[in-house]
Amino acid sequence: MMFIPTILSGGSGTRLWPVSRTQFPKQFCELFDESLFNKTLNRLKPLGSPWVVTNQSLKTLTSAALRQSGISPDQALYEPKANNTAPAIALLCKVLETRGESDSIVGIFPSDHLIQNEEAFNQAIQIGISCAKKGQVVTLGIKPTYPATGYGYIELKDQIFHREGAYTAHCTKGFREKPSEAIAQQMIQAGNFYWNGGMFIFEVSTMISHLKRLMPETWAALAALKPDLSNLSEVYSSCPAQSIDYGVMEKLEEQVCIPCDLGWNDVGSWDEIAKLRPSSDKIEISGNSNFAFSHLGKITTFVDTHDLIVIDTADALLVAKRGSTQKVKQIVDQLQTKKDPRAQEHPFEYRPWGKFEIIKDTERYKSKVIHVNPGQQLSYQSHAKRAEHWVITQGHPEVILNDVVHRLQPGESIYIPQGAKHRIRNPQTDSVVEFIEVQVGSYFGEDDIVRYQDDYQRT
What we know:
This protein has 3 domains: 3-265, Spore Coat Polysaccharide Biosynthesis Protein SpsA, Chain A (Alpha-Beta Complex); 270-341, no CATH class; 348-453, Jelly Rolls (Sandwich), CATH 2.60.120. It has helices spanning 36-44, 59-68, 85-98, 118-133, 181-190, 204-214, 216-222, 232-236, 244-247, 270-276, 328-337; strands at residues 3-9, 51-55, 76-79, 105-110, 114-115, 138-142, 153-164, 167-176, 193-203, 256-260, 264-265, 282-285, 291-294, 300-303, 308-312, 317-321, 348-351, 354-361, 365-372, 380-382, 386-394, 398-401, 404-407, 413-416, 422-425, 433-441, 450-453. 22% of the residues lie in helices and 33% in strands. β7 (153-164) and β8 form a beta hairpin. 35% of the residues are buried. The mean pLDDT is 95. With 459 residues, the protein is α+β, with helices and mostly antiparallel strands. The strands form 7 sheets. Strands 17-18-19-26-21-24 form a 6-stranded antiparallel sheet, with no helix packed on it. A 5-stranded mixed beta barrel has the order 6-9-7-8-10. Strands 13-15-16 form a 3-stranded mixed sheet, with helices on one face.
């Protein structure tokens, strides 16, 4: 019986704007020494080869992370649209059933949470697997540290279902909705309520039986899914958007919960980040308890200020009082109302072949720094409204210009006339190609591309 750890990777992380944005969400941001997604992958790999269920819009970022971790791209499922957690879990179960894995044990884990006590986490997983083998759906309950109103709670019975090592699995009375602060305080005082951290363990066949009974419309839609997933868009459009909590967990007559103290944090606000990591470089004059976060190498200075949080990115600056950063979502809402692209986009963008960052964008010209990963190449393309000039700063690329190959060195350049067919490739296996691109013309949008050949099926 195989254990299949699975990462659910969705959401836009709006409370961590301006670092987290729709096209580059929280789980891929390097808020610590590496991204939360990579931390989750590395935590789960010793337990089994992880699967991922995520949105199609995050395919480039997800594929790159899986490739770097040596995980097969076949173990990623890409939803045509965000449909909440129940359809995502149902999709996983349907695919595993099709592959003859109905008796496997699945663990469901969010992609963007921090767990600091991995030894305790591994022990909790092992008892969870034992309970799942007995037909239970298992939840890992997080020991509450304060009367939180932003989490659902799980109420435990005194009845013990299973003991193993240092952990005990309890039968549950059920899930409880996000409470008021007064009720949350009562729950903590009662001592038998735990936070729902969105981590579940179950046998595939067990979850399928619950889905058939409790979410028949969703399972009926997925029953028509073809083994090659070629009709996934059509099938998924028939699945109601619903959380697994509401669709299944709150309706189960019987389930178990393992109370845990994992050093868990959902990293849900800049206030939480400020508790978990040191400030970026700063100087305080007659001030204290100020926090700064910057990827730009800037020093942040504070004079006669206290309890400020300052988040600095290339195109946005956030200044907030400690304790108020939950309101950051309101900023994103206003930006979206104004259709400001900074609500969703960074000046940089990851592509299947590498990434680029916009240096300057004007009416007359646009400049970028572009990185091409080892062994990768851009599409063979042309532009109707701009010419380009490339200056190589690192690596030894091959440039194909109107079917002629040019091999360039650092410091050399090449001119791409408007309308010319061109591409750049990195033939090296161990180093990145970097070059500066300057565009001149009448329009510089990313949609001014005609592709003639592409390794990533974008023609």
